[in-house]
Inverse folding.
């Protein structure tokens, strides 16, 4: 249920404005994850010659402070007050505190960071922008969605918009003075976009007229930006059925005047804002387009390809909500578990009062949260850096290889990370015990907000299908085999039994073996009996996530030791823990994968 302003005291203050301990931006951990993922290699590319490391570190630190001091204090207010559709004038309003934070975000130029300089951007690697998104999402997940959607719209216009559209829309979207939306979903078209019914008819020199109803549109209407630029999938009269008949249109909320400024209101309005489990500060809108003015973006009937540009960027942005939520939940759970005393633990011959964290079960929960955060963060940044290499790599072969790795890993980064984020929020509730279930502690908000991650931007089930049926089989499975080869060779496994990580490497080797054998099984089944492959797709995606995550944590430990960073002892322990607690489950996942679809050959029993 969306909470209302009645949660405030008469003087307008909230009972507990913080909703848990203050958020601290984990800038050092983020920087280390970027380094492990290959930041140095990307910064060496000609496209990033203007980005020096110290500027990049300063940007992360400054944004970390902004996220902690300005954005995070608005999080609970957004949860309690929510966004509302005011009947007259029919506009969505957001809490006053959002306005201040958003204006400072715009004034700081943070939204421009990864985009081309010719439109006012900073041309930083997209992985660095993803790091900023993580901190924003930790600080206030609901508000962070606004720039996420804007950045997706920018990506689509950069790739598919014509020069005139780019000129008119991009500079304003980059700053965030205008925001963007993504309009795919309709009542009968969710996972199945081929069922979209929204239409667009050509109106001569007046452009296109878009009509239809979209639902669940994030930040579809609001009062933070001067204009809202909707990117809408619609069907032209001559269109073939299914996804092949979709075209992409840009539909501004206010039509641009001849001077390029927002002018007359367009025929698009928000008719409903959903009440939902979490993300109360993010308006989820029903949008009605009634012969609204629109412009075609990219080729007619090329809408799906254009929308995929937007969705691919957005999938990593949604994926990073996993570690973002997990980090925030961990910070709170850690503070609570080190402060509260319950029961006793053994101490030599006797016993002593125990803090929660002294109990092995609680310690395990905290470490699962902690290491899952580090592993998924590393996976997301690695995927984003492959994307940067795919665009700007020096050699065509490097670009192609990086593009294939990014394509393979994107669904894993989205699905595995958001599943881990929700699991971590749930562990956070568990660590706090009864207090974890009490709204005023702030922990329930973590859980409620995190639940959407596995659903939107293509459900995690759809991500698994994408991995297995669209990505894995490319070029006969070549790219997953190449990735496995790379994962078997770097860093060189330490074989000395005295190495603190030797046990972790043994577990990792087994996990890698499971992934190699199930990959071959999947490739064979994709041809021979696709249902068997599809039945195992979710477990296969998880196995990829677990194995790549372990690989990256081992690389992180090796990197930390080699470079002598302060966190090196912690990195070794975290890799050991993750291997023992998570990667050790790889064999179970492998067994689930190869069960196939036989046991699903039964009717689902009636419910009553
Ligand atoms: C808070 C929120 C914000 C959102 N923001 C946006 C937005 O900004 N723009 C936008 O366009 N949409 C948005 N959405 C919509 C969101 O992307 C969809 O809800 C999501 O893609 C799932 O579609 P659906 O709800 O119709 O579920 P369905 O498609 O009905 O799926 C229901 C279940 O069936 C499974 N399923 C469906 N088809 C298949 C299949 N072929 N194979 C296997 N399993 C299948 C799904 O995995 C899921 O578990 C938002 C939704 C929410 C709740």
């Amino acid at each position: 249920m969306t909470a209302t302003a009645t949660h405030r005291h008469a003087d307008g203050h909230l009972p507990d404005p913080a909703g848990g301990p203050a958020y601290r931006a984990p800038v050092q951990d983020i920087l280390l994850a970027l380094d492990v993922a290959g930041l140095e290699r990307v910064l060496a590319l000609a496209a990033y010659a203007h980005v020096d490391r110290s500027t990049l570190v300063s940007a992360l630190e400054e944004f970390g402070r902004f996220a902690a001091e300005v954005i995070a204090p608005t999080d609970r207010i957004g949860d309690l007050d929510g966004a509302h559709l005011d009947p007259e004038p029919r506009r969505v309003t957001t809490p006053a505190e959002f306005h201040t934070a958003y204006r400072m975000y715009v004034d700081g130029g943070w939204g421009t960071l990864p985009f081309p300089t010719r439109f006012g951007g900073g041309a930083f690697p997209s992985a660095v922008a993803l790091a900023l998104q993580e901190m924003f999402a930790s600080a206030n997940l609901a508000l962070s969605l606004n720039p996420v959607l804007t950045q997706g719209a920018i990506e689509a216009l950069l790739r598919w918009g014509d020069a005139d559209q780019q000129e008119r829309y991009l500079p304003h979207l980059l700053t965030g003075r205008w925001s963007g939306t993504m309009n795919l979903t309709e009542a009968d078209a969710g996972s199945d976009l081929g069922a979209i019914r929204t239409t667009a008819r050509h109106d001569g020199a007046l452009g296109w007229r878009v009509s239809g109803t979209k639902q669940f549109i994030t930040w579809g209407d609001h009062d933070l930006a001067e204009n809202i630029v909707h990117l809408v999938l619609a069907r032209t009269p001559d269109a073939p059925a299914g996804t092949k008949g979709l075209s992409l249109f840009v539909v501004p909320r206010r039509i641009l005047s001849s001077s390029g400024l927002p002018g007359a209101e367009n025929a698009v309005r928000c008719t409903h804002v959903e009440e939902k489990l979490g993300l109360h500060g993010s308006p989820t809108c029903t949008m009605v387009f009634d012969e609204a003015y629109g412009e075609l973006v990219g080729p007619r009937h090329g809408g799906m390809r254009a929308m995929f540009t937007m969705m691919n960027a957005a999938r990593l942005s949604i994926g990073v909500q996993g570690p973002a939520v997990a980090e925030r939940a961990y910070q709170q759970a850690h503070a609570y578990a080190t402060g509260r005393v319950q029961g006793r633990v053994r101490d030599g011959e006797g016993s002593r009062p125990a803090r929660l964290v002294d109990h092995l079960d609680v310690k395990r929960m905290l470490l699962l949260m902690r290491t899952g955060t580090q592993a998924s963060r590393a996976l997301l940044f690695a995927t984003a850096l492959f994307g940067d290499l795919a665009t700007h790599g020096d050699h065509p072969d490097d670009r192609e290889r990086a593009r294939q790795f990014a394509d393979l890993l994107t669904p894993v980064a989205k699905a595995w990370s958001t599943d881990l984020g929700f699991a971590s929020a749930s562990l956070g509730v568990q660590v706090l015990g009864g207090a974890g279930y009490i709204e005023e502690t702030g922990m329930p908000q973590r859980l409620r907000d995190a639940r959407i991650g596995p659903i939107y931007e293509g459900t995690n089930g759809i991500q698994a299908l994408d991995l297995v049926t669209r990505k894995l089989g490319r070029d006969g499975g070549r790219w997953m085999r190449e990735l496995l080869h790379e994962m078997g060779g770097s860093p060189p496994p330490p074989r000395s039994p005295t190495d603190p990580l030797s046990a972790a490497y043994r577990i990792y080797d087994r996990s890698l073996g499971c992934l190699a054998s199930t990959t071959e099984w999947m490739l064979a089944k994709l041809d021979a009996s696709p249902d068997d492959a599809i039945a195992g797709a979710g477990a296969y995606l998880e196995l990829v996530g677990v194995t790549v995550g372990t690989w990256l944590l081992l690389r992180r430990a090796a990197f930390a030791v080699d470079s002598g960073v302060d966190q090196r002892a912690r990195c070794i322990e975290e890799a050991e823990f993750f291997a023992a607690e998570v990667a050790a489950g790889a064999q179970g996942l492998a067994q689930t994968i190869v069960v196939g679809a036989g046991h699903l050959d039964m009717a689902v029993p009636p419910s009553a």
